[in-house]
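User: I'm putting together a teaching handout on how multi-component assemblies are represented. Below are the sequence lines for each component of a complex, exactly as they appear in our records. Could you produce the 3D structure of the whole assembly as structure tokens, so the students can see both representations side by side? Please keep the chain order the same as the input.
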Amino acid sequence: MKTAEDKWLYVISAKKKLIDFNFSEIWRYRDLLFLFVKRDIITLYKQTILGPLWYIIQPLFTSLIFTLIFNNLANIPVTDGVPNFLFNLAGITSWNYFKECLVGTSDTFKKNENIFGKVYFPRVIMPMSVVVSNLLKFGIQVLIFVAFYLYFVWFANPSYNINPQANLLLLPSLVIMMALLGLGFGMIISSMTTKYRDLTFLIQFGVQLLMYGSAVMYPMSFFKKELPNYYWLIEYNPIAIIIESFRTMVFGVGQLDLTKIGYALIFSLFIFLIGLVVFNKTEKNFIDTI
Amino acid sequence: MSAEIILQLNKVGKQYRLGLVGTGTLSHDLNRWWSKIRGKGDPYLKVGEENDRKGKAASQYVWALQDISFNVKKGEVLGIIGKNGAGKSTLLKILSRVTSPSIGEIKTKGRIASLLEVGTGFHPEMTGRENIYLNGAILGMTKAEIGSKIEEIIDFSGCLRYIDTPVKRYSSGMKVRLAFAVAAHLEPDILIVDEVLAVGDAEFQKKAIGKMKDISNSDGRTVLFVSHDMNAIEKLTDRTIVLINGKVAYNGETSDAISFYLQNFEKREPLVTWNNIETAPGNQYARLKSVALKDQSGKLRNRFNITENIYLTIEYFDSNDTNNNTAIFHILNDRKQTLFASNEFVADDWIEKHKKTNAIFSSTCKIPGNLLAEGSFSILIAVGNYNPELIHLIEQDLITFEIYDSTKGEGVRGPYIGKWPGLMRPMLDWNIKIMDKKFTDE
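Assistant: Of course. Below is the structure of the complete assembly, with chains in the same order as your input.
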């Protein structure tokens, strides 16, 4: 009897195991993932004049404004020996990747209602494609950052005390952590919004608030010095840890806290797994409630 | 056809919540969660009623599908019919894994692809070619598979000239053609087709139907075909399932299933009777008692194969006070054109039989097979006499019936499956001689 059962290719049923991933199926649809990425990239800036230049305009101008407001006006000190502008650009470049992953995946179900309502493919392909296409965008922004970095190192004031560290090799792991965090939270939010639309409002200003609590425009040490009573708010924020680590690596100022990075990694994996479980549970029936 | 079962549905049910989702959802969710913790089943799955749209809802939950069980064999073409809201779309959505059943399970041995909605995921800014790749991948093909078929797909769509133009510049017809072309080149083990044949112009429809036939006949692929078009169902499927209010009401041979469906929904009874002589149609001289349509074996039916004889029986009361009465019928097609009429008095024993007064007569006329064309027909019944000319009763549209042509090589059309002209389709005699002559007489 067992052999007869085994011959079924798959079973569609109401019951669903908590973790029920068909990785071979996702692998079979890998072409779809890359076609989605291609679609996102070639269609995003169609019929725009500046085209992909928008990828770099946004972080540059934001950094400029941050430098003006936070450093020149509010006199927030950046890490010693690091140019203000570069400090902000580093923060914004890394923050942007997380933010884009989060925002881009947080409306997966609602945005793709049309496709999801008609054909089946592993739904998780969709948020994964968002993360991958944002990675390309992130790559371009990193190149811009590198260009400014080299400029400041070689041509600007030699008093700047920045030199990249060997632990820069850990950078990809930071990127993966940001992707996992963004994807994880994004999947959780997109799953919840199929039923409770409230979260769409939350995400709009929630992301804004999170940025202020993620050490994007100030070093964590400054926060600790000025507001020691509230330091716990950002001390355990994995994104703040990731962004701070990113700056430590590229500027070579300060000490990398491996315990904290380890904590952030575990946190990211945890959120990602929760996201997968929730997403997986939602994908079966969301079309009835959306 | 192998007897291997490729798809098996086991007590599949789908429950929906009526009214607005939102208010009260959280409390129901919490309730569900609480019962789950206590190890009990979903409390809301127990309530719920049959999905009858017209009835007043007694509970907030409704079963769109209930207790659906059937098997599909490999290579079979299965039809699914039912009126709007019977659960067809829900069933197809569950089969194509867009949504999952509330209870029950479906087992399959093959990959299922559906042509539910063609053109899903088309991006207006991308070219036709790019969209073929994207759409193909969404439908489950790999890039290499699409690449090997791209020429064929473009050719089938007939959009070669526009293939590198963004799809937003396409006419709606071109979009549909392109989308169908992609879908038609899928190679799933089980294909679900839902009314897609209703799109496109006549030429393209012909192409699409041809492709459907190819898929099921030569490739031995399993097809589930959902349609309102009884003729298409008749032509393409072997077995048909009738869904009524979310339940399988009939599961059997296609022609029987269609008769069952028509009798249940279109109120087309092959028999009409009157029990009270006071209120039956007619007057003191003649009253109609019943009209019935039967097949060769005497079974009441209102769907007939084009080759079958049809027996029309008219029962009526005849006082015979005026003169000899005669039963009359007209056959009208769906455009209300009278194709022909016939009169009881052509019977040899008409005068003899009608000598009896105040009797009930039962007069049966045999309408031979291979006479009417495919389509639906209505019957007009009258009783009267011609000398003096009097009509005692005349009833229109009492009974309607349908003639189908299963195009299995029988009847007037033989093996030809194309359009056959003519209001009637009589089988006529042909006589062939081979002449011992030259074309030009010298």
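A couple of points students might notice: Chain B has ten helices and 19 strands. Residues 170 and 231 of chain B are 32 Å apart (CA to CA).
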